[in-house]
């Protein structure tokens, strides 16, 4: 698949996840085969006002490309105004968030709230596409606001008419947040209704679930969000399964702990150890999910204060798991 002139390798991209998919995680996932990444969502209003935090969220490194910057907001003019600054980051594309269910985003008219106003959503896409010029614009939506309002097809068609180059569909309504089920039939309907590429998103956690998304929706590409948390190697697993049916196992515990420590070190390198180690606690907890004794390990990891402490916990986990296998 291509987004604009950018050809994508592999089958799946890393989803933009606020507070999670930062530069360190995006680079790590690309190293494991993620076809592209998207920044954490950035407020168009904040960008337009010169907010320093917004600008830092948009920064893209060479190691995470191809990559896009995702913006959110509800005012077409402000969204378009933010593009001038966004393009200074040289993204391969600009993504518009119309799917975030968080109350502080949707409650202010942005994110998934735009599912309730398709006409406004179309105006936003058209304004941003014009401001972006030759840089492609993509849109991320949900299947609807709630079970009484499934309107992903209309949203996708309006986005296409307004100049979107591709559309990602998360197979849940805003009301569902992240609860099951993922409504694959609605993603399939979107795919049948537009000519631009459609990217399927929702509960893709391994090769078989990736294959199911493709077969049941006909979508052109995949996006993985929570399925990559503590499991950045999921992209290698998806690629192997979709290429020739190979079921790659998760790495052994020693390798998982090595990746965890490298990941946390990157977070601290980019954000300082004082800030980074606190943000790293949640990532570390995801890495130990499914390991025997995980509850006790998570308790220790929730109180992390240094990279050195993390390394000691990782050595302990590796040692204790080795004893269990002996």
Mind telling me the CATH class of the largest domain? Alpha Beta
Structural class of the secondary structure composition? alpha/beta
User: Sheet bearing the most strands, described?
Assistant: 10 strands, mixed
Low-confidence stretches: none
CATH topology of the largest domain: TIM Barrel
Supply Rg.
Answer: 20 Å
Order of helices and strands: EEEHEEHHEHEHHEEHEHEHEHHHHH
Overall morphology: globular
How many H/I helices?
A: 14
Structural commentary:
This protein is of the alpha/beta class. It has 2 domains: 2-244, TIM Barrel (Alpha-Beta Barrel), CATH 3.20.20.70; 253-325, Non-ribosomal Peptide Synthetase Peptidyl Carrier Protein, Chain A, CATH 1.10.1200. It contains 14 helices and 12 strands. It has helices at 23-31, 44-48, 52-58, 76-86, 103-106, 118-132, 152-162, 184-193, 207-217, 234-244, 253-271, 273-287, 294-301, 307-325, and strands spanning 2-3, 6-7, 12-14, 37-38, 42-43, 67-72, 93-98, 137-146, 149-150, 166-173, 198-201, 221-224. Strand 10 (166-173), helix 8 (184-193) and strand 11 form a beta-alpha-beta unit. Helix 6 (118-132) runs parallel beside helix 7, helix 7 (152-162) runs parallel beside helix 8 (184-193) and helix 12 (273-287) packs antiparallel against helix 13. The mean pLDDT is 96.
């Amino acid at each position: 698949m291509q987004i604009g002139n950018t050809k994508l390798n592999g089958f799946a991209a890393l989803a933009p996840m606020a507070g999670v998919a930062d530069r360190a995680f995006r680079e790590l996932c690309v190293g494991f085969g993620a076809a592209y990444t998207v920044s954490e969502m950035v407020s168009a209003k904040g960008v337009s006002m010169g907010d320093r935090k917004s600008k830092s969220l948009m920064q893209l490194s060479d190691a995470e490309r191809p990559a896009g910057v995702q913006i959110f907001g509800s005012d077409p003019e402000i969204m378009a105004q933010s593009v001038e600054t966004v393009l200074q980051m040289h993204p391969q594309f600009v993504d518009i968030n119309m799917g975030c269910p968080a109350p502080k985003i949707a409650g202010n008219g942005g994110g998934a709230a735009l599912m309730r106003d398709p006409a406004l959503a179309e105006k936003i896409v058209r304004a941003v596409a014009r401001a972006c010029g030759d840089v492609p614009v993509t849109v991320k939506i949900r299947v609807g606001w709630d079970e009484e309002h499934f309107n992903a097809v209309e949203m996708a068609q309006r986005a296409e008419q307004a100049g979107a180059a591709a559309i990602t569909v998360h197979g849940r309504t805003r009301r569902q947040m992240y609860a099951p089920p993922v409504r694959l039939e609605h993603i399939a309907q979107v795919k049948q209704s537009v000519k631009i590429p459609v990217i399927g998103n929702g509960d893709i956690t391994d090769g078989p679930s990736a294959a199911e998304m493709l077969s049941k929706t006909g979508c052109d590409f995949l996006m993985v969000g929570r399925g990559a948390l503590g499991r950045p190697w999921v992209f290698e697993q998806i690629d192997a399964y979709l290429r020739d049916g190979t079921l790659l196992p998760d790495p052994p515990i020693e390798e998982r702990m090595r990746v965890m420590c490298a990941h946390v070190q990157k977070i601290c390198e980019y954000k300082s150890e004082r800030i980074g180690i606190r943000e790293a606690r949640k990532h570390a907890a995801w890495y130990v999910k499914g390991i025997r004794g995980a509850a006790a390990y998570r308790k220790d990891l929730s109180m992390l204060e240094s990279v050195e402490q993390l390394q000691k916990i990782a050595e302990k986990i590796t040692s204790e798991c080795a004893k269990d296998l002996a």
